[in-house]
Amino acid sequence: MKKIILAVVLLFALMGVVYADPPSCVSSGLKTSDAQIMTRDGDSWRYLCGVELIPGASADATLILYDNTSAAGDVLVSLKADMGNAIAGFAPTAFSILVYTGIYADVGGADAGYIIWYRE
Prior knowledge:
CATH class: Mainly Beta
CATH architecture: Sandwich
Distance between the termini: 41 Å
Order of helices and strands: HEEEEEEEEE
CATH topology: Jelly Rolls
Radius of gyration: 20 Å
Shape: globular
Number of domains: 1
Largest sheet: 5 strands, antiparallel
Number of strands: 9
Structural class: mainly beta
Number of helices: 1
């Protein structure tokens, strides 16, 4: 009888691990220059959840996110936003982009800003 109870307890414990909520997305905070946003360490996977590109008032803005530690390698996302109030990007969702190395952001345009959400 004790073995059956132990087996049921272990089964429910494993179900809690399997059905646990995925970790939330983390914000990079508002950035205004090229930056290494995050890197993948060891066996843990990282995911790109969302991006927001905010153009300046006097120039168009561009943002290219690379799966790398520099402005080279595979492009994850490439965005362009017209000057003024046209914000470009996509909001954090349950569907994320797998990142193999890290996220490096290359931004262009006067007074442009961006926010990146990623999952650790």
